[in-house]
Design a protein that fits this description.
The complex is a heterodimer. Chain A has 19 helices and 9 strands. Chain A is of the alpha+beta class. A 6-stranded mixed beta barrel of chain A has the order 2-3-7-4-6-5. Chain A is elongated. By secondary structure, chain B is of the alpha/beta class. Chain B has a single domain, classed as 3-Layer(aba) Sandwich (Rossmann fold). In chain B, 38% of the residues lie in helices and 25% in strands. Chain B has 8 helices and 10 strands. Chain B has a 6-stranded mixed sheet, sandwiched between helices. In chain B, strands 2-1-4-5 form a 4-stranded antiparallel sheet, covered by helices on one side. In chain B, strand 4 and strand 5 form a beta hairpin. The chains are: A alpha+beta, B alpha/beta. Chains A and B meet through helix 11 and helix 17 of A and helix 2, helix 3 and helix 4 of B.
């Protein structure tokens, strides 16, 4: 039998062992290819919204995939070789030269790597059309997706991953080449003592965790980046210390409760865990932290994404809006009407709001005044906000700050509001503070809603200083996109200069449609990238746990043989393994979820919408996928210890 | 009262694929009384391990009957079989088979824990078993912390803690030096006398066999001879040696 045959035989025999690795590394290659093909794709060049910035986004995404792909491949192969030290020692004893063994191992790792590369590229090419469809779907773009091959992307994937596997195989082979026979043989020797666990370290870790949690719970807006960094650091260190000590202590305490501990298979599960938890603590802590990172990242992006349409509507309540000259039949209005006529679009609602510019005293803040009649009509047409009913002398204060509240330190609050208009001054009782807006972003200043009577008085005092804003609602704004794009060409300033505008006012032609497209394109793209990264992380973490546990099963097999003789039936074995794995898989997940929940709470404070719904959804899906790894590992573990 | 009753037990190997059939057991008839300490001796290939495996339900015979404590063990299947093995049989192996992750105490109580026995009862039984084998002081220790002989006494304690009908011992002194071997055998003999434990021990060692109350000799899958101890070990040892000399062959 020559060397190549031995290599292939080895791979064939270990196929089931390599399967999970091939799946994960193949997925990494596939995701890399997909991002690379999006970067190079001609298909998306045609979309005007795919800007060069977004292409850079894909490039960065691909590079990041490569970075943790490399980390994963490195970790896994080192792990495979460590597991096989005894086998390697046997080859050496049988008289194979060190260089031969090294070459054999090198060939094996390269072959497996190339199989993964081929599988990944195949899957990437095969699914690229569906991924393209997913991208179009997520970003709400209007585009046809065709199957395309991206030869450049294939080339770069092959180049990059062959290089990665080459470096990796060389590294691993050199490990073998440098090792001594005696070390290889003693690889399986391990600490035989049940670790004691240090109370000091454990309590310190727990203390740090509690401190971090409390610190984060006490955070108030505005939030400083320093505080976030401090809390993250404290919590990460706390996680590692807790895992390394406290977990052992908890298991020890649990084992003192004879009633629980001596009740069947739990005895085995707990003792095995105690025996090996120390060797696994760091991995488990790292996985807990990475679970937290993945959950937080995916959940926050998902939350922003799922609120995109609402956000777009909030900032752009009118489908079309621009600052007009006010008087009937002015140039700009006529031009706009002309375009709408060409496209045969009839507005469902068309209004020119007259908003007197006022200054809130004593702060001298700019604001607008709107009449109750205009406000109710606009809000009704926009389908937002409750109608208001005001008497003379009463007002409602509306401000965007209540929506983006984290951005502002002190949210304004008035019992009575005084403002000046030219020489005149008014003072009104404020009944309510609202975040509702009826105007688009051109007018960012607060708007004071007043009774129609008061409005008359204010308007006549502000004749020379009134903002005229034309707002239009359409039946199907997204369908009218071509028309809106043409309207956009009319402004800004094409027909008149910037004269008469105040700071915070903008001549730009604005549309809900633009905002909607922008939101979904940028956040959708972000979500798209995040989804792949999240799944990739999950797969890597799941595989690492899977391999770590299956490796342990090697040591457990003789123990379960003994247990079989002592009278442990298969059901008890399944249960005992299940209990053991529940802790190993469950603790990093629970800690990850807790950590991320605290992180999401902070985000929840600065975000206008609640984060908890989207967060719960992401946690649910993540847990479900994670549980799949748990179940597969459980099955394989039981098979290995009972066969 | 008979604890074990074996009738016309036969075991063939290797017939399934049409090759040559090896008859490992060729019609064994044997009964073990309650409180007996029975030794099974024979050269290697005589079928003593096969016999032990058939009794211990690890292997199934080709034909014949095995009754233990009145139950026909060949009719037991699945869960009932595992429970029978756990509750009615105790095992002692040459290589101890103690779990290195458990203390001696935990190792001993394992069968009871698996049977979901109440904690109070477990504690009572474990301390009794530990007392019987003189390892009370070692209960908190791990297998790697005690000597080979102490390990094997721990294993014996585990075998008897469930108060089984029958303790099966497969070369229990095979891995021990003579001093530890003697300790283990003495404990067997004492358990046998004081607690009326029924023990079936397979051994190739005539010295070990001399601790038994009765020894049967197997040759080529059949019972060859049988000796009953007169109570004096030295004399019994000599008689065993005589039989072995007649049987000849490699004892292993």
């Amino acid at each position: 039998m020559n060397m190549n045959k031995l290599v292939f035989k080895n791979i064939r025999r270990r196929l089931s062992e390599y399967a999970m690795y091939l799946a994960s590394s193949g997925f990494i290659v596939a995701v890399f290819y997909i991002f690379a093909s999006l970067f190079y794709s001609d298909q998306f060049v045609l979309l005007q919204q795919i800007s060069s910035q977004m292409r850079m986004g894909f490039r960065i995404a691909a590079i990041m995939v490569l970075i943790y792909g490399a980390a994963f491949v490195w970790y896994s192969t080192t792990f495979f070789v460590k597991n096989r030290k005894k086998e390697i020692a046997n080859y050496l004893l049988m008289g194979l030269g060190k260089s031969q063994v090294t070459r054999m191992l090198f060939l094996e790792i390269m072959t497996v790597g190339l199989i993964g590369l081929a599988l990944g590229l195949g899957a990437g090419v095969l699914f690229s059309k569906y991924v393209g469809m997913l991208l179009v779907n997520i970003t709400k773009e209007i585009a046809e997706v065709h199957f395309t091959l991206a030869p450049k992307a294939i080339g770069i994937s092959i180049l990059v991953f062959v290089a990665l596997y080459l470096v990796n195989a060389l590294h691993v082979s050199s490990l073998v080449y440098r090792s001594k026979l005696i070390d290889l043989y003693q690889a399986d020797k391990r600490a035989e003592r049940r670790p004691r666990g240090s109370w000091i370290m454990g309590l310190l870790g727990l203390g740090l965790l509690i401190y971090g949690y409390v610190d984060s719970a006490l955070l108030t807006v505005p939030i400083h980046v320093n505080a976030i960094l401090r809390i993250t650091l404290v919590v990460v260190v706390g996680t590692f210390l807790t895992m390394a000590s406290l977990l052992i202590l908890i298991l020890r305490i649990a084992s003192r409760n004879k009633k629980a501990y001596w009740g069947g298979p739990r005895l085995i599960a707990l003792s095995q865990l105690m025996y090996r938890i120390k060797a696994q603590a760091l991995t488990l802590a790292a996985i807990a932290v990475l679970n937290a990172v993945t959950l937080t990242a995916v959940a926050s992006v998902w939350s922003i994404y799922s609120g995109s349409a609402k956000d777009a509507r909030y900032y752009m309540p009118f489908d079309i809006t621009y600052i007009s000259d006010g008087f009937a039949g002015n140039e700009l209005d006529t031009a706009v009407d002309g375009v709408m006529n060409t496209y045969e679009q009839t507005p469902v609602y068309d209004v020119t709001l007259a908003l007197p510019r006022v200054r809130i005293q004593p702060e001298d803040r700019k604001a607008y005044v709107v009449s109750q009649r205009q406000y109710n009509a606009a809000a009704n047409a926009q389908g937002s906000g409750k109608p208001v009913s005001l008497d003379r002398g009463e007002a409602i204060y509306t401000d965007r700050a209540y929506y983006d509240h984290a951005m502002i330190e002190d949210l304004p609050h008035y019992d009575t509001i005084g403002f000046s208009v030219g020489e005149a001054a008014f003072s009104l009782t404020v009944l309510d503070h609202r975040k509702d807006r009826i105007v688009n972003q051109q007018a960012v200043n607060p708007i004071i809603v007043v009774s129609d009577t008061d409005y008359g008085a204010i308007a006549s005092a502000a004749v020379a200083d009134t903002l005229y804003l034309r707002g239009i609602m359409l039946d199907d704004p997204l369908g009218a996109e071509p028309m809106i794009r043409e309207l956009d060409q009319l402004a800004p300033g094409g027909l008149h200069g910037e004269k008469g505008l105040l700071e915070g006012e903008d001549r730009e032609f604005e549309s809900y449609v633009f905002k909607y497209r922008d939101e979904f394109m940028s956040i959708g793209l972000f979500l798209f990238v995040m989804l792949f990264h999240g799944v990739l992380f999950l797969m890597a973490l799941g595989s690492i746990l899977y391999y770590k546990q299956l490796n342990e099963s090697r040591f457990d097999a003789p123990r379960y043989r003994i247990l079989d003789r002592v009278g442990m039936d298969r059901r008890d074995i399944r249960r005992s393994v299940g209990q053991q794995l529940t802790i190993v898989f469950g603790i990093p997940l629970i800690i990850g979820i807790t950590h991320s929940a605290f992180a999401i709470r902070v985000l929840d404070m600065v975000w206008p919408r609640s984060q908890w719904g989207p967060y719960a959804f992401v946690v649910g899906v993540y847990t479900l996928l994670y549980a799949l790894y748990y179940l597969v590992t459980w099955r394989q573990y039981v098979t290995r210890v009972t066969s | 009262m008979e604890i074990v009753l074996i009738k016309n037990l036969k075991k063939d190997y290797g017939s399934r694929l049409g090759g040559t059939v090896t008859q490992a057991l060729r019609g064994i008839n044997l009964s073990v009384e309650k409180g007996e300490f029975l030794g099974v001796m024979g050269p290697s290939g005589s079928g003593k391990t096969t016999l032990l495996n058939c009794i211990s339900t690890i292997d199934t015979p080709t034909s014949g009957h095995v009754h233990i404590g009145g139950a026909d063990i060949l009719s037991l299947k699945g869960k009932a079989l595992t429970e029978f093995r756990r509750d009615k049989l105790g095992f002692v192996f040459q290589d101890f088979n103690l779990l290195d992750t458990l203390t001696l105490e935990e190792n001993i109580l394992l069968p009871l824990a698996l049977a979901r026995m109440p904690v109070g009862e477990i504690e009572k039984r474990v301390s009794q078993a530990a007392h019987d084998l003189g390892i009370e002081d070692l209960l908190g220790k791990y297998p790697y912390e005690v000597s080979m002989g102490q390990k094997q006494r721990g294993a014996v304690a585990r075998a008897i803690v469930g108060q089984p009908h029958l303790v099966l011992a497969d070369e229990p002194t095979g891995a021990l030096d003579s001093k530890s071997g003697r300790d283990v055998l003495s404990s067997f003999a004492r358990l046998n006398k004081e607690r009326q434990a029924t023990v079936l021990m397979v051994t190739h060692d005539p010295f070990a066999a001399s601790f038994c109350s009765r020894v049967v000799f197997l040759k080529d899958g059949m019972l060859f001879n049988e000796l009953i101890s007169g109570g004096e070990r030295g004399a019994f040892f000599d008689r065993i040696m005589d039989v072995l000399a007649v049987m000849g062959g490699d004892l292993r």
